[in-house]
Amino acid sequence: MANKGQVKIGIIGSQFQGLCHAEAIKGIPDAAEVVAVASPTPGNAEKLAKKYGIPRFFTDYKEMLAEDDIELVTIAAPNYLHAQMTVDIAHAGKHVLCEKPLCMTLEEADLMIETCRQKGVLLMYAEELLFTPKYVKAKQMADEGAFGKVYMVKQLEKHFGPHAEWFWDVERSGGGALMDLGCHGIAFCYWFFDRAPIKNVYCHMATHVHGDKTKGEDDAICIIEFEGARVGVIENSWGRRGGMEDRIEVYGEGGETYADLHMGNALPTYSEYGYGYAVEKAPSTKGWSWPVFEEFWNYGFPQEMRHFARCVRGKEEPLCTGEDGKVVMEAIYAGYESAGKGRKIDFPIKSHKVKKPIDLW
Amino acid sequence: MANKGQVKIGIIGSQFQGLCHAEAIKGIPDAAEVVAVASPTPGNAEKLAKKYGIPRFFTDYKEMLAEDDIELVTIAAPNYLHAQMTVDIAHAGKHVLCEKPLCMTLEEADLMIETCRQKGVLLMYAEELLFTPKYVKAKQMADEGAFGKVYMVKQLEKHFGPHAEWFWDVERSGGGALMDLGCHGIAFCYWFFDRAPIKNVYCHMATHVHGDKTKGEDDAICIIEFEGARVGVIENSWGRRGGMEDRIEVYGEGGETYADLHMGNALPTYSEYGYGYAVEKAPSTKGWSWPVFEEFWNYGFPQEMRHFARCVRGKEEPLCTGEDGKVVMEAIYAGYESAGKGRKIDFPIKSHKVKKPIDLW
Amino acid sequence: MANKGQVKIGIIGSQFQGLCHAEAIKGIPDAAEVVAVASPTPGNAEKLAKKYGIPRFFTDYKEMLAEDDIELVTIAAPNYLHAQMTVDIAHAGKHVLCEKPLCMTLEEADLMIETCRQKGVLLMYAEELLFTPKYVKAKQMADEGAFGKVYMVKQLEKHFGPHAEWFWDVERSGGGALMDLGCHGIAFCYWFFDRAPIKNVYCHMATHVHGDKTKGEDDAICIIEFEGARVGVIENSWGRRGGMEDRIEVYGEGGETYADLHMGNALPTYSEYGYGYAVEKAPSTKGWSWPVFEEFWNYGFPQEMRHFARCVRGKEEPLCTGEDGKVVMEAIYAGYESAGKGRKIDFPIKSHKVKKPIDLW
Amino acid sequence: MANKGQVKIGIIGSQFQGLCHAEAIKGIPDAAEVVAVASPTPGNAEKLAKKYGIPRFFTDYKEMLAEDDIELVTIAAPNYLHAQMTVDIAHAGKHVLCEKPLCMTLEEADLMIETCRQKGVLLMYAEELLFTPKYVKAKQMADEGAFGKVYMVKQLEKHFGPHAEWFWDVERSGGGALMDLGCHGIAFCYWFFDRAPIKNVYCHMATHVHGDKTKGEDDAICIIEFEGARVGVIENSWGRRGGMEDRIEVYGEGGETYADLHMGNALPTYSEYGYGYAVEKAPSTKGWSWPVFEEFWNYGFPQEMRHFARCVRGKEEPLCTGEDGKVVMEAIYAGYESAGKGRKIDFPIKSHKVKKPIDLW
Q1: What is the distance in angstroms between the Cα of A243 and the nearest Cα belonging to chain B?
Q2: Is B85 helix (H, G, I), strand (E, B) or coil?
Q3: What does pLDDT average to over chain D?
Q4: pLDDT(B159) > 90
Q5: pLDDT per residue over C180-222, tens digit each?
Q6: Region label for D288, one of left (φ > 0), alpha (ψ between -120 and 50) or beta (otherwise)
Q7: Is A148 exposed, middle or buried (0-12, 13-18, 19+ CB in 10 A)?
Q8: For the whole model, what pTM was predicted?
Q9: Distances (CA, A) of D221 to B296, C5, C154, D104
Q10: Does C288 reach chain B within 8 Å, measured CB to CB?
Q11: What are the chain A neighbours of C268 within 8 Å (beta carbons)?
Q12: Interchain pair C273, B265: CB under 8 A
């Protein structure tokens, strides 16, 4: 592979996350291009390929891995497949960009990390909140001393249920709202606190709205104590109507900041007739709505992709790695265990000999 | 006492809460009037009396209780004095309006309730959030079915420390942010959920900012499960700069609402020169600020006072009683115990044989 | 008439404004009570009377004027009737509270003022914005020097058309959005600038949306220069969907403030099922909406009524009089003339020998 | 010149606008690069060159025009120099990107347009609001029919005075707030209404705050009627404290939208200690502030530059040209004449035989 020019990328997956990858990479044509997509459902890969002008498509991702020119493969597949795919990609000598959450078990996480290390490929973990421009500004102000010692960071993400059907099925997803959304907030707090080690996790969970659809929790509140007397609070729900909500609060002894990616950025709009698109998961564009602009950019997807493409070229060091993803997994395991036992779970945690996080609830 | 006309009120206390009472009662001249004020610090009662045109003032509240015409006495004194004062007021045959939190121990709560019952006087508990107009609107919409089944109510109150010096001293206050501010949120959720019994309480506490001033926690997050699969989340801090913050979020399976008493009501204002007053605990009126208007009315103080005055006249039933205050105390005790043990505390709880809530932390 | 106790009030009108008066007076039971209501449409007065427990009702307001105990009569009738009604009320020896705008012509304004003067009754002009608590706070900060010299005040009121059918008919209303809504903003700026004389008026008008319903303009932008290098900008529309909008901006050389009575006070709310009431003229309570709380109080209606009741009792001087209403009328006349001629109209203005303001457009 | 690869750009100017150009181009490294900068003040060009790694710098822009590889020259110089520079650049066979406003007189505008036409180079007009992502979303919703017929567009830009000293001097700038800021809003409305011809312009102007510094107006309100019964309202001020304000309102018979680039996007922040940067022209980062994130991107500067670079490569047609800039100049002339005469000025307008717009005030 030539170590210059656009990074050639293959995508595994053709649903919402796969589309996100294709769209994000479309936004950085100078840095990367999607040259192939794989999806087991007949027709799906082809459909995405046509939409984005991707030249090659496959139903078996292993066939895609045989393509010589592909340098980086992104995993936008159900959680329970992440580990095996990562191993396969690494063995094909290609870099890995794995969607969140990293995998199903801590053993899988270790295997993924170790295999990539041995094969000399990068294992990058796709946490876009580390690239979300509005949140990056909050971090920057904090690092400039705006708030003195920051003692609490809150991140909240809520909507009315996952994009992909498979996420309702805990066998394939590993859990509910904490697994789907909490991984964002955990990674975010961990990053905001400069990777201070986690001391303990408490989590409250419930299934308020979607008990007919899932065995997973649809609401979770997670409180994490980090070394250095710092606290992360992460709130997640699949039970919030009206579209996506994603916001943070940062409190320090010297001040605070609030960043809201949706209501706090939107164009408050009334439309009698409706229009094209308001925001992720918005139920309607008629009446009052909260449309956002350049949604992908405001989440940080193209910025994230550019960063990872540059990492492949050796121009930057990965900001978010398999190791980070494993820490998030540990917090998720501790979260489910905590919700099951009604008490804080202290770190370090050990293997639980279960197949998925929610088994501890 | 004539059971008509303005209710004649005596206030015990001359600090912030005492002033709140005087100011609130000034706003309902048709329903009530302050005829006396008592405060042990020489000069303080007189000062408040002069400011509000209150005809009589005392350094010993027991002397005030001897005044025949007084029908209702409000307690705006340190927490550790509430119980004894209530007992004294009841023995004087006058109705009691006790500031939050109710007292120091559950035994005190029982004594207060029982004494007032025996003496045939009302024991009313001053939780103004039940009268805060913006929050009342949220409750009203919920009761009208706007959100279907409401599964979560959050209330947040934060600022940079208590008004009264004595609150830093846990011997006199009984605890920190949860005791000072959490009592509001607990009472609010309990009321919002129509007094559903509490199932359990989890609380996270820390002293982030004011460890030099207090042994109390200056930050608390409290998660309460109520019967009927409903959750209250209460966040409190004495470590938030920039003025008062008080807001709620209500989530139901059919929708949600957000109410912010400060940023969400204010007049965003820039002033090069400053002006009279912005908001409770605002550090400055220069530069950007968030002034509120009719702060007392927007908190609900005069509405609350009118209600209690009407209760004295038998025209309404107390919306908030000693029994409610005791439930709040139970949740506070459970909160400190939870923070001490790192686990949920199940209800019902029993006496802890301690002198104050924070002893359980 | 006894010059103490509640002021006894008769209302002329049973539509939206009449209801506003009844509701506002209900909010000040200690200061005033409605004892009679008159409306020519059979059944209407009775209906309002029943709703508010008003003991007497009439179809002929002149019969109501014969009631001895009535001290103050409010006019909530179509604009073209204001002058005659005022004269009749004054001749009956009762005080007058006239809704906005004051009347149809400047000659009528003079007659109203002069008649009330001769008969020794008050002619009060019902401009509630002078009592709107949030706007009063803006004025207060300005008076405290927050903004230094204030050089510009903007007031905007928009919705999707008047409450009363008769307002579409310019023969009865005298004009469109400027006549209906602009009178508020003109009075507000005039008051904010401490009744500085008007130097000139420019107005832009158009009928964008409701040309099928009215010959009046449904959109108006009015720029008024006041003595002392101060500018008022007033924007009004009957073409704004989605509910009521009412807000101000105040700019001084030393700062500025923004006050929004609706979006800036509301509880952003999503409801799948709908609920009782959101805000004046809101099209729906389903989906996203902007409900307000205590709408009447936040507009200042009860505060205004209390003030006028106290004026009747001689305890306060009217903050807003027939003379103020006449100044507003002059600005409205100048506005229509300006829109007709495409140029600024200088003050003082003289009589135009027309029957209503819009005749000059 | 090779018609591929990065477009090679020279910048004339080293103050705020010059820096904006350099910064914007830095954001599109795949599409363009700055290879030279010219500024007459000794040291200034060098300073900017060092900051951005620009290889060549000049004190005489004509020397820069002799550089063969330069394909596009941007003009970030005082307004009175725009025409001559454009002519010189065109004669050097290079494309022109001229900052707003286009020039000083309509004759100059004609000369610029004609010269570039004759020399076969592009004359592009740098109106970034056509690329501001949040505003583009508003336009997109409008074009999708969200608001039905749009009858009014408002654009407001205010701060406390221009970046460059020369703008206070009307001999070099041509005017005040309308010339500096109004050109944005005029271009924006013109674009939003799909270049509907202007029917007439009314403008109100005053010098409220900075009369000691400038003969230009520091406040302007401009009302423009476009063909098709559409109205643009543009408000500008150099007298607004507290940082930059830039927002739009769009009203149609079927709805409306609001977009605020500053308060409506910011992270409301309190800082006791201050931090790096809040927003353009913010007076302080201590206390409450309204920091924005990715300010350049949110204004649309890199997007605009990418577009113009692609136009140079023939991949896109210029969205904003000299002809557009001339229409803006006509509206500005009409605006000053209107403010001088106190009446609407009808289009088409003819030459005024003056040296600069403000001469008509």
Answers
A1: 10
A2: helix
A3: 97
A4: yes
A5: 999 999 999 999 999 999 999 999 999 999 999 999 999 999 9
A6: beta
A7: middle
A8: 0.97
A9: 38, 51, 12, 20
A10: no
A11: 263
A12: no
